[in-house]
Amino acid sequence: MPTPPENRELSPYTGWTRAHWEDTADRLLAAVRPYASPGGALVDLPGARPSWSGPRSDGLEGYARTFLLAALRAAHGDDPHHHLDRYATGLAAGTARPGGDGPDDWPLLPGTRQAIVESASVALALRLTRRRLWDHLDDAVRARVADWLLPALDPSPVDNNWWLFGLTVAGFLQDAGIETDRAAATIDRSLDRIESWYLGDGWYSDGDNRAFDHYNSWALHFYPVLHAHLAGDRALLDRYGPRLRAQLDDHVHLFDANGAPVPYGRSLTYRFAAAAAPWLGALTGHTPLTPGATRRLASGTLRHFLDRGATDARGLLTLGWHGPYDPVIQPYSGPGSPYWASKGFLGLLLPADHPAWTAPEEPLPAERADTVRPFGPTGLLVQTTAADGLVRLHNHGSNHVGGDDDPGYARYAYSTRTGPTTVPDPADNHFALLRADGTATARGPATPLGTGPDQALSAHRPLPGVRVHSGTLAHGRAEVRAHLVLGAPEGTPVRQTGWAVPADGDGPVSQLHPVHGYAPEAAELPTGATLQGPGPTRTPALHGTTSGPAALFVALASLTGEPGPAPVAALADVRVTDAHTVVVTWLNGTTARMSLEAPDSEDQ
């Protein structure tokens, strides 16, 4: 298939038009066809290992997630490669003997939890194509598909965004006139459950654990708002649409001028699913983005990954970020998992004459002005610079971490062009106490201590009886990183690390400068590959030791894509005014203050 020509008049930033999205969808769908089972019910993609749910579940995942892409591709009746015919055949074959061990048999939802996830994609695809596909199926096939879907209406077995899979199945069954009372009850129950996680300003926690990441946009807003839109439920849309708009007001700041979203959290292998919510805002009218900015964001993200090797020589999406990268793979991820990137094609629901397709592209916030912006109640602080279009995200509130720090959640900072490093390498953007054997303490769950227009603060307990209060103060490309260590034994070694960048210098410049409490010379720790590319990388580090019951450590850090940047020490004058306070005068003469003093309610 010839590639559509670029249109730099309509799309001066990316060159891409709707034709490129349709072409990409067709190529992705064509690439998976050789891996379909005889009846087309399973798509068994090649991979080094199955997910923890097993190969049959993985085959269903490959079918369901590519079926969603086919449904979006054919949303306006244009299906020149007959994608929907193949998926209709698969529906009949997969539900003929569900739970069996034949080459096309789907796993049953009871007993295969992952099948509940995939049932949502099947149901959404059927809902989007109901008049073109579902209404033309044999009655017996429709009955079998409905029977397979119905267990998804039970309460969710996982207490997080999984509640929305039942919502999505219920929405389709309600439209199709199947078990409508039960479906309505599922919708109400699911929406009631996620309501307790809504913290305001467009942000949900993904469960009870203050987990903030891209699931806010591609799940917690995606499913309720899209359901309300497809159901024509004005009351629901009036409730959830403004929340989506508020989320997008923050979400748009997470995209680099090069199209990359900030890689933080889990399930990063879904890649350009990060574009789903901006498209949904355009679809429903609940967006702060102009049509041209919406397409610039979405096309920039799609191109970012495709131009950097997200598909292999066979045209298959790989498990990774740019190319394959094992450390971003969760145990629940199988070879078909990356195809939840299909959500990023939601813009194909918009007709070709919609302004999001016809308006000239406009620049992203990261390209227009320097920004420092807290994200509502999350404890996250975004920092962007227009000179290089680079985005940094400082984390003082997301704590979806277990016994060992999850690199996707526990770092103090993330960016669109660096890390995070993974074991056995030292953690980048980390502050730790060092044990006698030289090993570093984990950060663990972070308790947010508040944000301001230019700063965010948090606390954690790295060891019994020891508490660390941390803060980031940002301006331009400069960051003040401060940590107040309370209750540590006298002379405890500490280490602050900075941004991990390619050791050959072919990438952004990472700087780390001691201000207070550290030894005067910065070290460089050898580190390896990150999701950005192969190693070696280098991570700057500062070392110090505690003195007294309250020891303050302050550093200046910088990450920039500008060539030959001035030393970060030249960007700010930082003064320590007492045991827990720093006052900064930036290069432009403005001043800022940050205090790490414990609130009265905090146990020190």
Automatic annotation (TrEMBL):
Domain of life per record: Bacteria
In terms of InterPro entries, this protein maps to: DUF2264_N, UCP014753
Chain ranges of the DUF2264 domain: 17-364
Quote the protein name from its UniProt record.
Answer: DUF2264 domain-containing protein
